[in-house]
Amino acid sequence: MATVAENMHGVGGVGAYIAKHWRGGFSLGFAYWINGVLVALVSVAVLYGIGTLIDANADSLSLNQMRAAVIGFTALMLVSPIWQFVGIWRSASAHVSRGGKQAWAIAAKLAVAAAVLRNLSELITFGREIAPLFT
């Protein structure tokens, strides 16, 4: 298993980090646990905070301001998981050629597939909840 230092080799900034994950350049363990699990936990906390701010200020926002806030919230809700899923999937695809076990690559892809289905379900539910704002 690659160390954090080995994973971070050649990463020169945030953009390079994002691109390296997107391309599957990190080890599977790093991609899954750091860019998958840890980033998901942080994303949930940030989205919860944003949702709470939107709810707390809903009465003082115009309809267009509320729509903009919901669109921004939805964009954040989509971008991070797509980045996570693609990077983990690509890392899993390269895992065996890097000396890893096939079983972990398969397990990671199954976890990504399950997470995609869960996120789609949540997105559909959220879409139904916000639909009245846009009708």
Number of helices: 5
Shape by Cα distribution: elongated
Order of helices and strands: HHHHH
**C-alpha termini separation:** 51 Å
What's the number of domains?
A: 1
Low-confidence stretches: none
Query: What fraction, in percent, of the residue positions are helical?
Result: over 70%
Overall pLDDT, averaged?
93
**Radius of gyration computed on alpha carbons:** 18 Å
Backbone structural class: mainly alpha
Keywords: Membrane, Transmembrane, Transmembrane helix
Transmembrane segments: 30-54, 66-83
Key words describing this protein structure:
135 residues; mainly alpha; 5 helices; 78% helix; transmembrane helix; transmembrane; membrane
Report on this model:
- Keywords: Membrane, Transmembrane, Transmembrane helix.
- This protein has 135 residues and is mainly alpha-helical.
- The protein has one domain (28-134).
- Helix content is 78%, strand content 0%.
- It contains five helices and no strands.
- It has helices spanning 4-8, 14-22, 28-56, 63-95, 102-130.
- α2 (14-22) packs across α4 and α4 (63-95) packs antiparallel against α5.
Summarize the structure.
The chain crosses the membrane at residues 30-54, 66-83. The chain has 135 residues and is mostly helical. Helices cover 78% and strands 0% of the residues.
Task: Describe the protein's topology.
Layout lengths: L3 H5 L5 H9 L5 H29 L6 H33 L6 H29 L5
